[in-house]
Amino acid sequence: MSAAAVEGPYAHGRGPLTLLEQADQLAKQLPGHRVEILGGVLTVTPPPDPGHAFGLSSLRRPFVAAGLDDGNARVVEGLGLWLPDGPENFAVPDLSVVDADAPDHVVTYNCCDPACFRMVLEVTSGNHANDLRTKVTAYGAARIPLYVIVDRKHERLHVLIDPMEDGYAVHRIHVAGEKVTLPETIGATVTLDVTQVLDAARNRTPHRP
């Protein structure tokens, strides 16, 4: 996670910018970065590295193959999720399974009501602490039924279910060699091969001749 400067606190000739206004400015100043407000803190994540991008591309496939990108559901990347744990909090999950009518339930700032989300998934980068701690609390409070984390630093897959106000009641950790069938609350049966997921998401060092 990195921080970036915004305009002075009294831009536009009026009072201080709200966090949402600052987030909007940062998104325009830093195209390709992910801007979020988590727990009242404005955070900026640099563009994904190749392993992160390849991992997401690979992870979409089992959800699409299970029929979750047709009918009453969609598999989407980078859809804003409005968070109820603060007046301006929002997240932008790497991958989500949402109800097909999610565009009809935008709360504000192009972020959808959390009730539309069946699952959120994050692939960790330099901001792994956010994914493993801050977002556990945020997504639990938002009552997202299923949170999956591809933890590239520790080579593990986390599956969290049964959301609570401060997180999730059940947090299972899986390692290479395991196959994990996700809860059918997402609307279909999806099984993830942990070895394949971790291999696909592993950071790739660019080849230099």
Entry summary:
The protein has 209 residues and is α+β, with helices and mostly antiparallel strands.
The value of Rg in angstroms is: 17 Å
Average pLDDT figure? 89
Shape: globular
Amino-to-carboxy terminus distance: 30 Å
How are helices and strands ordered from N to C? HEEHEEEEEEEHEEEEEH
How many separate helices? 4
The major pleated sheet works out as:
6 strands, mixed
Question: What share of residues are in beta strands?
Answer: 25-35%
The secondary-structure class comes to alpha+beta
Low-confidence stretches: 1-11, 205-209
User: Helical proportion?
Assistant: 10-25%
Number of strands: 14
Biggest sheet, spatial arrangement of strands: 3-6-9-10-11-12
Task: Give the topology, please.
Elements: H1 19-29, E1 34-38, E2 41-45, H2 50-65, E3 73-77, E4 80-82, E5 90-91, E6 95-99, E7 106-108, E8 111-112, E9 117-123, H3 128-141, E10 146-151, E11 156-164, E12 167-174, E13 179-181, E14 191-193, H4 194-201
Parallel strand pairs: 4-8, 9-10
Antiparallel strand pairs: 1-2, 3-6, 4-5, 6-9, 7-8, 10-11, 11-12, 13-14
Helix pairs in contact: 2-4
